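Cont'd.
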Amino acid sequence: GAVVSQHPSRVICKSGTSVKIECRSLDFQATTMFWYRQFPKQSLMLMATSNEGSKATYEQGVEKDKFLINHASLTLSTLTVTSAHPEDSSFYICSARDPATGLDTIYFGEGSWLTVV
Amino acid sequence: AQRVTQPEKLLSVFKGAPVELKCNYSYSGSPELFWYVQYSRQRLQLLLRHISRESIKGFTADLNKGETSFHLKKPFAQEEDSAMYYCALSGYNQGGKLIFGQGTELSVKP
């Protein structure tokens, strides 16, 4: 069945460096993917909508220069956290919808834990 | 403004007891409402959505437009139901963009 895969599942980086998280749709093409941020036992906060072949749409309050999103192909979106700081440590989740079907086919990645030290 | 509110952060019940997880929403239009479940160390997965009006794992949810609510119910809770539950909404033609509630942790004790 359709799956969304994220990589890496866990990453530790030093403060000031950049880290890239990948989100891939397997078995289907996703023109749109979504990036969320989740703190432990809290809600998923939508960060941005990743659009294949065009600029991402960021939610209010999300720094686009800090969270760079690239959706270069129909199966891959990447989130790059630039100049990471400890407050960026969080659980990042992506989702994608199979456009061939309806809203009940929004698939979530397994998430990526980012720890900035 | 689009908003989903889950007033209970934690709900603890005993096995076999009825359970109701509350969800209220605010949306200017006709949204689609969903319940997602996140078991420990697993990814988020769809539990049910209001359009399908089906029962999954014994859970049901009815959309009440007058009260703008979409409460999740199960008559007899099981230990394996223990998880985080998120209510979410999406507007039509939003392509899968979801607004989530704060989540409710359901703990079912033996």
